[in-house]
Amino acid sequence: MPPAIPVTDIPARHGGTAVMPTAAIESPSSPELRRPGRFTFALSAAVLAFSLMQTLVVPALPTIGRDLGASSLGTGWILTAFLLAGAVFSPVVGNLGDRFGHRRVMLTAMLVFAAATLVAAFAPNLGVLLGARVVQGVSTATFPLALALTRSMLTGKRLAAAFGWIPGMIGLGAGLALVVGGVIVDALSWRWIFAIGAILILVSAAMVVAWVPRGAKPAATGSTDWPGILLLAGGLVGVLLAVSQGGAWGWTSPWTLGVGAAGILLLIALVLVEVRTAAPVVDVRTFRHGPIALVSLLTVVVGFVPYVFYVALPLLMQAPAATGYGHGMSVTASALAMLPSAVLVFVGGRLTPALVARLGGGGTAVISAAVMGVGAAALAIWPTTPWAVIVGFAVLGLGNGIGYAICAQLVVSVSPSHEVGAATGLNGVVRTIGSAAAAPVVSAMLTAGAVAGSDPALAFSLAFWVAAGASLVGALVSVALIVRAR
């Protein structure tokens, strides 16, 4: 993905016009950093390792479910557990980085990540695998830690380049993992996904040790926001548990309503507590700048939409043709069918600067949401037609690649310069929440369709229409950004 650039159609407020002040952009890189190219490569590799592990399991989910005797709901949590834990771990570990040193905390997190990945490789049952996936969520913090190290070590053109490549690893890794994971499962077994992943994590950690300097001693002090951490974790678990289990418990059952309401109340309490906390784990005060709220909602959409298909498409394409709706593909074939989308995610990021130059940030965001919506609608209309699924998912990937890039640029452009760090961290949390919400929603819809005894293809189609509707919301939010800027 290319370097971050200012968003031209949203006016600057409070000095938040670019990634770094002009003076910093014009100055040379840190004298302590002799090989900035290796520095950026090492941090990119660390973020890529985390991004790969998010979706590397996706093509293998049906196989893992059958091997461990898990239900579709339980299998969906193999993906959701990682994302949910990441939404909590990211700001917590980022806070520890501010206090104890970003490099030190990143390396610690990566070693924990590698250990949990090895446990997952040998997991004897679903419970152990889910526990390992929760611990793996600590890797989500590598992204904000990498950005913090980049801001402290690089300036000028090298800073701009790093701010392009490091965020780009999230979309690139997620797309590549869909293909690589399928090939590994068919050629070896699903356990090798985690074994190979652990090797990649350790290699990237070695590069961080060799090429990322320790930097200055952190100046930040203070205590960890434990009330905020507990409220964030409890609120997210409550809401997502209600969504994922609603089909099994009954959508109007006391359990569903009670757990969901408890989650919402805890998130409301989180907001009330964080606005009064000096060093909050999630700085919700950044929402007082109107555009940040809109960009955050757009980011939820960009996180949610692709994960609907990451969860549903392997199930659809690997189902036997005799079912009347399945494509009868092997794991490798289904992974290769997703390859065009992975390529176009990267292409979308590369196209974003040209789109911003012509249409501005808000206009580019509209294009992103519209293209995702077209791809999702095509999948919803023709879910049983293999070529239509491949083309529709590829189109969706193009829109999603633009979405990853423009959300990162928008959040920097509309934030006051002294709040860019907090706004970027919050944006990462809301993106992860959007992604985490997809698996329970899809699993609940497919389970409800099976219980009702309706055509299974219809359940997939409805899930894809939900993604198309979310894309429409993203387009409307993008229009609101344009209107606000005028």
How would you describe what is shown here?
The chain is mainly alpha-helical. The chain folds into 3 domains: 32-214, Growth Hormone, Chain: A; 225-280; 286-486, Growth Hormone, Chain: A, CATH 1.20.1250.20. Helices cover 77% and strands 0% of the residues. The longest helix is centred in the C-terminal third of the chain and has 43 residues, at 339-381.
Share of residues in helices? over 70%
Low-pLDDT stretches are 1-31
The span between the termini is 29 Å
Oligomeric composition of the shown chains = single chain
Radius of gyration: 21 Å
The overall strand count is 0
Number of helices: 17
Please name the fourth-level CATH homologous superfamily of the largest domain.
MFS general substrate transporter like domains
Query: CATH class of the largest domain, please?
Result: Mainly Alpha
User: How would the global form be characterised?
Assistant: globular
**Beta-strand fraction estimate:** under 5%
Structural class: mainly alpha
CATH architecture of the largest domain: Up-down Bundle
Number of domains: 3
Outline of the structure:
By secondary structure, this protein is mostly helical. It is 77% helix and 0% strand.
Give the helices and strands, then pairings:
Blueprint: H1 22-26, H2 36-55, H3 61-68, H4 72-100, H5 102-121, H6 126-136, H7 142-153, H8 156-187, H9 191-211, H10 226-249, H11 254-274, H12 290-318, H13 331-337, H14 339-381, H15 386-413, H16 420-452, H17 456-485
Helix pairs in contact: 2-7, 2-8, 2-9, 3-4, 4-5, 4-6, 4-7, 4-10, 4-16, 5-6, 5-7, 5-9, 7-8, 8-13, 8-14, 8-15, 10-11, 10-16, 12-14, 12-15, 12-16, 12-17, 14-15, 14-17, 16-17
